[in-house]
Amino acid sequence: MTAMRGTVQSHTVIRVPDKAHAAMAPFVLLLVELANGKRVLGHFHGALPPAIGSRVIADASGQETPVFREETP
Amino acid sequence: MSTNVCVAGVGSTKFGVLPGRNLQSLAAEAARAALADSNIPPARIGCVFVGNFVGGIMTGQELLGPIVAADLGLSNVAAIKIEAACASSSAAARIGHDLIRAGAEDAVLVIGVERLTGTPRDALTTAMTAAIDQGTEGVAGLTFPAFWGMVMTRHMHLYGTTREQVAAVTVKNRKFGVGNPLAQFQKPVTPDEVLASPPISDPIRRYDCCPATDGAAALVLTNETLAKLYGSPAVRVAASVLLTGSARITDYDEITTHDGTVSAAIRAYEIAGVGPEDIDVAELHDCFSVAEIVDSEDLGFFAKGEGGPAVAGAPSARKVVINPSGGLLSKGHPTGATGCGQIYEVVMQLRGRHPNQVPNARLGLTHNGGGTAAAVTVHILKAL
Lengths: 73, 384
Prior knowledge:
The structure holds 2 protein chains of 2 kinds.
Chain A: E1 3-14, E2 27-34, E3 39-44, E4 55-59, E5 67-70
Parallel strand pairs in A: 3-5
Antiparallel strand pairs in A: 1-2, 1-4, 2-3, 4-5
Chain B: E1 5-12, H1 23-38, E2 47-51, H2 55-59, H3 64-71, E3 78-82, H4 88-101, E4 107-114, H5 121-128, H6 144-159, H7 163-178, H8 191-196, E5 199-201, E6 204-205, E7 215-223, H9 224-229, E8 235-244, H10 259-272, E9 281-283, H11 289-298, H12 307-311, E10 321-322, H13 327-330, H14 335-350, E11 363-370, E12 375-383
Parallel strand pairs in B: 2-3, 2-4, 9-10, 9-11
Antiparallel strand pairs in B: 1-7, 1-8, 4-7, 5-6, 8-12, 11-12
C-alpha cells in the first residue's frame, strides 16, 4: 500500500454541494501539496478541517479522490 | 499603422430575475439598444458574436449566433456563439476588437446573454461547475464557492485579511447597487447581515456570493472612422486582452495570486501605455466578495495583502473607484453577459452619464474571469 503524504495549503467545508456530492455534504475539501511539489484535492476523515500547514496522509491506491487524515508525529 | 477600435454604442437589459424571457428576446433587446445608441446602420455589421456560457445546459437552446442575427434582421453576417464560461462575452469582444484592428471588419456586434434563474440550486451549481475540469477536480466535489472559500482561507492566513474586511466588499457593492437601476439588488446590507447569512462553503456565506441572474448586454465595436462618420458616442478601446491562467486549482503555484489576471493586466497596461495608477474607474470580477480583494491586488491597484484594508477604508495612493455599478455581487452575474455588462458600465462612466458617476472619469478598466480565473480578459477604455 502506497501512502500519499503532504501539507495542507488550504481548506473549505462544502455545505452546498453539486448534485453528485449531495449525499456527502457537509464535507471537508483540502488542497494538499505533496512531497514532490504536486498539488491534489482530497477529502478528510473528520468534520473540521486541519489547519493550513498541517501534515496529512492518505492511502494513494484505489479512490479517485484521496481521503486524508492528520499524520501523527 | 493598425486601426483604432472603439465602442460605438452600448445596450443592456435590466439584470435580475426576468421570468418569461428567453435567451433570444434578451439578446435582441440589448442588441437593438446598442445599435440604436451607436447610430451605426445595422447593414454595416459584418459579424455577430454571442457570448453565452450555459444556454445549452440551462435552456436547451444552442446556435444563438444565427438565431439572434435573424431576429435582428441581419443577413449575410458571420454569427457564432463564443464560450469562455463567465468571461464569454468579453472574450467575444476581444475577437471582435482584433478583426476590426486588423481591418478585416468595419463593425462587429457583440452580445452577452444568459438565463440562470428559475432552476433548483443544485442544478444551477451543477451547471456552473461545467467550468471546472470534471476529469480531475469535479470528481472531488470542487464548486466555485469551494474554490473561493479555499482562496479566502489562505488569503486570511497569509496576509491577515479579516472576515470583516471581506464583508466590506459586499456592503460597498450593495450600496452602489442602490443607485444603479440595472442592478438586481438595490437594497443595502449591513456587515452583520453578511456575517449572519447562511454558510455555503466555509468561510464563504450567502452574501459573499453573487446571485443567479438573467440578462443581456451588447456592444457595437467599429473603427473610429466609421464611428465619426455616423456621429457615434464613441469610447476608444485602448487595450483588449484575453489570456489563459491556471485552469485547475491544483495548477496554481499560489491560489491567492491569479496568474491569468496578473499577466492580462500587465499586457493591457503595456498596450495602452498606462499603469494602474492612471485608472479612474474599474469594473472587476467580484463573483465572490473575496474575489474583489484578490483581483484588486492582481490588477496592480494594491500590493498583495493590501486589498482587504483598502476596501475597509485604509488610506491609499490609488484614485480608482471599484465596481460603482454594484459589481457582480449587486448588479448581478448573468455569466455569459457579464463581460459586455462591465464594458457597458465603464462606457457610461467615460461618457459622464452613469447613475453612480465617478467625477472626471477618463480612463476605465474591465476585468472578467472564466472558471478558476482560467480565461481572463482585461479591457482598458478611454474617453475620446
